[in-house]
């Protein structure tokens, strides 16, 4: 019963390596990539209209950060992403729970769910713009539609994969319907739901940006197309970096949520 | 204490209880019509080869599955009425399963205290009770860990602590020590006997270890398969507390031999 020191130390060494390694490799790889990029542009004589040098992109991005209009566009994209994501989360989780619970509902909706899964939804974006206008509403809707399905399917899977043995425990303890939900079904499905949210938030950004490409005059997607049309390629790249950072921030926010809500689950990473 | 199931109401009563499982190709006759009376405070052991319906019988007592026909009563309360499980029949019943079935999102302490929480006990009492039980089953020091950080044997002990936590009158145990090594198993047997002598709970325990059955039981029911039914009933007369040395006495060996002989014939 006291034979734990050796394996624990072993595990700890791995944990620290797991934590530290990306902090070294990521910057190094990034630096190498930027170096290759820079040398290629310099020595192959590529026009800066096709591929600007990293330094120029960096300068353009710093300039963008000082421009209040750029922040307005950023805010529009954040707004469309987060409201779309919020709608998708609420509807996806509720419908996912219902589908997992009510066999007839699943059977009824399943053909439609499959159909909407396989239809390339991005192709429908012009239609949304047509129906909901060039304003922010159409972007919110596109973001919501894209984020909705992974949240729905993961939630349904989570509720369905509740362990039968765990159910037996609750039944043998005479638990009420509400107690079974609160103490078993919800915590058991939570890691799955968070996986759905993780995929969903990334798709929500894509949805918002694609919506902005195709219509209206606000948002980072719109800004990117405007820079492209003006042949300001370095500024276009700056917008691209800006969007990517936004994506990272959202994704890591969900990751933090996971560590906070399901620390017991293996997906939350090793316990340090 | 000898099982004196005479004038008083039995803790558990089966009347012609029968169980069929409906599988797609052919139904399985898991338990033939069985009558059974377990006296209040009796320690009953169900013994038999695997597939003879021990788990089925125990799960029917616990209300987890309904009998195909027949009547089950727990402390006089009918367990099923119009296909509905009757909560009052199960209010004083604890269960230990073949798997520990701990909730991975609760700490060991919270797992042990889960029944108390469901029954609305105050938080401070729950923690104190969980600590005491962790000590009783020998996993003190691990109360704050996640279940996945414990070995299989320790998890099973936490599951036993959980079943004991709200002090139910009836304790149902399905091969609770199957995952433990021989030494821990023996220690747990002695511990279980001590708990039973202190509390005089009604215990129904399933095992396929003959020695464990003879060591623990007031009465042993030997089940035989296809269909599952009670093949033989053995009263175990040894005084309590029974110590480890009992196992090497000729009387103990005689009962073991008798059971083994019959087991070999039926399986
Ligand atoms: N859910 C089920 N569906 C169909 N058959 C089952 C089910 N559970 C058990 N059985 C069958 O019923 C018989 C008794 O099983 P069980 O009660 O688990 O036996 P034991 O616990 O003694 O090993 C076995 O033949 C088993 O295959
Ligand atoms: Mg079994």
TrEMBL record, chain A:
Keyword hit for Transmembrane: yes
Top-rank taxon: Bacteria
Keyword set, alphabetical order: Cell membrane, Membrane, Transmembrane, Transmembrane helix, Transport
Main location: membrane
Topology in membrane: Multi-pass membrane protein
Residue ranges of domain ABC transmembrane type-1 in the record: 74-258
UniProt subcellular location: Cell membrane
Record field: transmembrane: 20-37, 78-100, 112-134, 140-159, 189-215, 235-257
Similarity comment text for this entry: Belongs to the binding-protein-dependent transport system permease family.
Protein name: ABC transporter permease
The species this protein was found in: Falsiroseomonas tokyonensis
UniProtKB/TrEMBL annotation, chain B:
Keyword Transport: yes
Protein family according to the UniProt entry: Belongs to the ABC transporter superfamily.
Keyword Transferase: no
Domain ABC transporter, residue spans: 12-250
Matches recorded under Pfam families: ABC_tran
MF terms (GO), sorted A to Z: ATP binding
Keywords associated with the record: ATP-binding, Nucleotide-binding, Transport
SMART domains assigned: AAA
Lineage: Bacteria, Pseudomonadati, Pseudomonadota, Alphaproteobacteria, Acetobacterales
Protein name (record): ABC transporter ATP-binding protein
């Amino acid at each position: 019963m006291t034979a734990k020191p050796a394996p624990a130390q072993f595990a700890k060494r791995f944990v620290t390596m797991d934590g530290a390694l990306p902090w070294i490799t990521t910057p190094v790889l990034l630096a190498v990539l930027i170096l290759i990029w820079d040398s290629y542009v310099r020595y192959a004589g590529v026009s800066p209209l096709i591929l600007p040098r990293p330094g120029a992109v960096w300068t353009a991005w710093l300039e963008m950060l000082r421009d209040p209009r750029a922040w307005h566009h950023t805010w529009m994209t954040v707004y469309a992403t987060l409201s779309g994501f919020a709608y998708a989360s609420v509807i996806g989780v509720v419908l996912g729970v219902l589908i997992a619970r009510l066999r007839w509902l699943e059977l009824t909706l399943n053909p439609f769910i499959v159909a909407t899964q396989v239809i390339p939804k991005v192709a429908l974006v012009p239609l949304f713009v047509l129906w909901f206008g060039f304003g922010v509403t159409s972007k919110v809707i596109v973001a919501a539609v894209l984020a909705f399905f992974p949240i729905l399917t993961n939630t349904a899977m989570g509720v369905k994969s509740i362990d039968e043995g765990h159910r037996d425990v609750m039944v043998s303890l005479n638990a009420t319907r509400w107690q079974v939900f609160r103490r078993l079904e919800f915590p058991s499905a939570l890691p799955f739901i968070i996986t759905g949210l993780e995929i969903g938030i990334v798709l929500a950004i894509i949805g918002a940006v694609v919506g902005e490409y195709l219509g209206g005059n606000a948002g980072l997607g719109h800004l990117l197309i405007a820079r492209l049309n003006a042949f300001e390629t370095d500024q276009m790249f700056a917008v691209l970096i800006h969007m990517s950072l936004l994506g990272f921030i959202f994704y890591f926010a969900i990751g933090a949520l996971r560590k906070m809500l399901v620390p017991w689950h293996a997906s939350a990473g090793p316990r340090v | 204490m000898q099982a004196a199931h005479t004038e008083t109401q039995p803790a558990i009563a089966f009347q012609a209880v029968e169980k069929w499982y409906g599988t797609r190709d052919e139904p399985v006759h898991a338990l033939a019509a069985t009558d059974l009376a377990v006296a209040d405070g009796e320690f009953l052991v169900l013994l038999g080869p695997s597939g003879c319906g021990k788990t089925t019988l125990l799960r029917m007592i616990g209300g987890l599955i309904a009998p195909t026909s027949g009547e089950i009563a727990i402390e006089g309360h009918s367990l099923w009425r119009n296909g509905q499980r009757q909560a009052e029949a199960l209010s004083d019943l604890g269960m230990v399963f073949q798997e520990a079935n701990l909730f991975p999102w609760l700490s060991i302490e919270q797992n042990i205290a889960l029944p108390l929480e469901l029954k609305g006990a105050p938080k401070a009492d729950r923690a104190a009770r969980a600590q005491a039980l962790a000590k009783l089953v020998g996993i003190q020091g691990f109360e704050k860990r996640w279940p996945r950080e414990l070995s299989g044997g320790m998890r099973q002990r936490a599951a036993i602590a959980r079943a004991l936590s709200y002090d139910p009158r009836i304790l149902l145990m399905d091969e609770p020590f199957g995952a433990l090594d021989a030494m821990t198993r023996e220690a747990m047997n002695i511990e279980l006997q001590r708990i039973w002598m202190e509390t005089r709970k009604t215990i129904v325990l399933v095992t396929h270890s003959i020695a464990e059955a003879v060591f623990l039981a007031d009465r042993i029911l030997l089940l035989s398969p296809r269909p599952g039914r009670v093949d033989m009933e053995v009263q175990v007369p040894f005084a309590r507390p029974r110590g480890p040395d009992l196992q090497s006495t000729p009387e103990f060996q005689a009962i073991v031999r008798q059971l083994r002989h019959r087991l070999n014939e039926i399986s």
